[in-house]
Amino acid sequence: MAGFRSLARQVRDPRCDLALRRYSLRKCLERFAPYGHRATWDHLCSRAGFGPEDRSPDPARLVAALDELEEARAVWLAYEVEFAERRKKEKHDGLRRPGSVDDWHRLTWGGFGVAWCDDPTVHPREPLAEVLRRLIAALEREPGAECPVCGGERLAWKYDLDHEPSTGPVCTDCGILVPRPVLTPEALAYARRARLLVSA
Asked: DSSP letters of 139-185?
């Protein structure tokens, strides 16, 4: 099974046929897809200027999509290295029980679904790397009351998400499943009430 870097080389290789290059970009999303596979694909296509179902996109647009994905992956991998070093130090210092950020991080190791978007057509418009920087910054500061990606305050609790956890606060502005550790208990309670109001 090819790794991310091997697939990325195929996307860039002008000797590869266009169908293989497109396929290789889709396969990259099996290794790294911050919004989930379908939503990340929709995001990359819209930002690079080709349709999700376009079977023969301009090769330069495929490479532009890959460039954005690679930049975001570099941001996330750097965060994972820092996270692993912090946990190692905490364990050395006797802090064996992980916190809520650690529990959330365990579910997103490798970057899949870091900013899960259950509806593949509703996702942040900013570059993936910027979205991840905002999310990481939120994980490293005190919890707040708004979406760490878009600053939206309209959070609603959703059930039956196609992700783990399968329930949680979703930003109704940008569509991400907001990590619980970045929200205050009051914001989480508000999101739960918003769910009750929506379903009433």
From this structure: HTS--BSS-TTT----EEEE-S-SSSSSSEEEETTT-BB--GGGB-H
